[in-house]
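Kindly inspect this one:
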Amino acid sequence: MTTYDERASLTDLTATVERVRSSVEGVIEGKPEVVRLSLTVLLAEGHLLIEDVPGVGKTMLAKALARSIDCSVRRIQFTPDLLPSDITGVSIWDQQRRDFEFKPGAIFAQIVIGDEINRASPKTQSALLESMEERQVTMDGQTYELPSPFMVVATQNPVEMEGTYPLPEAQRDRFMARVSIGYPSPEAELQMLDVHGGVSPLDDLQPVAHAHEILKLIEAVRGVHVAEAIRRYAVDLVSATRTHPDLRLGASPRATLHLLRAAKASAALSGRDYALPDDVQHLAVAVLAHRLLPTAQAQLNRRTSEQVVEEIIQRTPVPTGSQQQRGFGLGAGTQAYGRQPPRRLG
């Protein structure tokens, strides 16, 4: 049974999310879904890849999210001459101590902004693999833990742009979701001219949440309930990508885990302590599409990974309330998705 103090705590957490959302939306006009997805990835302990053409606000979104939280922030400008040691750190000989001393690299921060990540060589990009998956860096046989919360927000231009390298499959798979900002509407662009015409709104952006509050939010998201039928639904969606004729590489088991974590975070953002099939459906394209590799024939037919995922969503049966009832012995309707009659977070 939920006590009054627990309900008050959940209300406080919901208020924290709203403060961060309002802060970011004050900089990124007219893109509420993009901001929501960014917060979803943050609360799901994932990493975000922002891919779009130059000039639409990719770096602005990453900076706004980082500055809205009172935590350590480092930016890495990925260039062709960037070295792996610039990211992870390097051991330097200390003459006084007569021993090697580890100098941490830019990855040792709670939010790391990787700007134009696909302009560095694959060798340099691979320096992020361990830190993004295991939240640690191993150097000269010594392992160094990264701070919590830890999130990489990377931006990249489309591969067709000059001077870019395609991200290795192993690195793309470590990003929980990929989002494209897109061009603003005429009204939003006109408002942007008024807001950004004089000074950058980032200059006045102040933190509205502390790192320890984000950790509490993450802990709350971990407690969101996901029924057995919804877990099977996520597995069915991911499994379908591995046998689809238009794909030569499907989504990995890590993708299933990321999809489930993102669905739990989305439920919490919607004020629920239980996940629904809608949470999985709405996030499937963002979480799965960037991991997939279309076949040559699909590329000739101009079939995109996003279209394939949309098709899989349409073909995969959605769990119903009766399925949930058989699995848990609960009543039909929305009660079937939780362990008890649903309550809202706050």
